[in-house]
Design goal:
With 108 residues, the chain is mostly beta strands. It has three helices and six strands.
Length: 108
């Protein structure tokens, strides 16, 4: 099942303002992909091809259990050069294996 979310990021949490495919209202900022998406040096589209082998995520409850997120691609929402949130797509299966391949698929 595909997932999608629009979230706002504050100091401690990530608030899902609109979402499809899962029912988490919010998560702790350090526990979710969006924390990396909004970093100042993050690329235009932050991609995690397979969270089950990524050391930052492989032991997280949302990877091992519900909603079993495997793939993530997110882009920061910015206002006046300040990253305030993220638009993301997530999947419970791998859709690409090489980062360049993932980026080309997310921009299509």
């Amino acid at each position: 099942m595909p997932f999608a979310a629009v979230s706002f990021v504050d100091v401690d949490s990530i608030l899902f303002k609109s979402k499809v495919g899962f029912d988490l209202p919010e998560v702790h900022r350090n526990d979710w992909f969006d924390a990396y998406t909004i970093l100042p040096d993050s690329s235009e589209v932050y991609v995690v091809p397979d969270s089950t082998v990524d050391g930052r995520y492989k032991d997280k409850s949302f990877v091992r259990g519900y909603p079993k997120i495997r793939f993530y691609a997110g882009s920061a929402i910015m206002i006046e050069n300040v990253k305030i949130g993220v638009l993301s797509i997530l999947k419970s299966h791998i859709i690409c294996t090489a980062l360049d391949n993932c980026l080309s698929q997310t921009k299509a």
